[in-house]
Amino acid sequence: MGNAYQQRLSQQMPSDKVEDVSRGLRWVFQNIERYGGDTSQMLLMGQSAGAHLASMLLLEHALLEAKHLTKGSKEEADNWSVKDLKGFLGISGPYHLQKLGPHLASRGLYPGIMTHMTGGDLLGCSPEALLQQDDWKAFGARAADLLPPIHLFHGDRDKAVPVWSSVHFAGALKDAGAKQAVLDVRKGMTHTYPVVEGPMKRHDPQVEIILPMLFGPGAEKRLETTPTLPPMANPRIIDAAGVVSPF
């Protein structure tokens, strides 16, 4: 997997979404200080498909770096390191595409769409499955040491991506040696609550997670002292929308 990732990078294949994310992250590392940012305060996060792509990048890049270190290479892996990230936040992510197929079929959806999207390589494009590959078995211990703190967030009422997706991935990460992997399952939350219903009700669980990851203990006080704003719509209407939503 690491060799394939390195090859795709060298070929500059813009259609590969994981490499798109890598190039974007590399650009931010190289340019954030020009805009007043701090490279030591960078957090990688994604929701749904974004969580899938970001987690693929995180694991593939850690594996690539581990291979460089094992071989004693002085060349940096794509000019940035996963160990420099403050953390990774994955929200409602599909982390094993092959396992997700039956769920999609049970909801009347066409699971073959994922086969088309991945070129038929469902396992090769699944973060959880990557941890079972021969490359990870060979270099995974060193790769796991490079990983930043990982926080996997999922609502237990998620209809689009079942909560077991994050549960299984969190377990696989710990079994693979990730020392800072946290599973955060929220009762009553749907797939879209963290990005739609919650913010509309002036409740943003993403910010509640991000601030402590970035600023450490005491960050919660920033939330407590933030002025409370009224909901963007009638809370009952927002709740009703969450119930009828297919997600």
UniProtKB/TrEMBL annotation:
| A Pfam family this chain is assigned to | BD-FAE
Alphabetized, the UniProt keywords read: Hydrolase
Looking at the record, the residues that make up the BD-FAE-like domain are: 12-172
Q: Which InterPro entries match?
A: AB_hydrolase_fold, BD-FAE-like_dom, GDXG_lipolytic_enzyme
Q: Which GO terms describe its molecular function?
A: hydrolase activity
UniProt source species: Symbiodinium pilosum (Dinoflagellate)
Superkingdom assignment = Eukaryota
Q: What is this protein called?
A: ICME protein
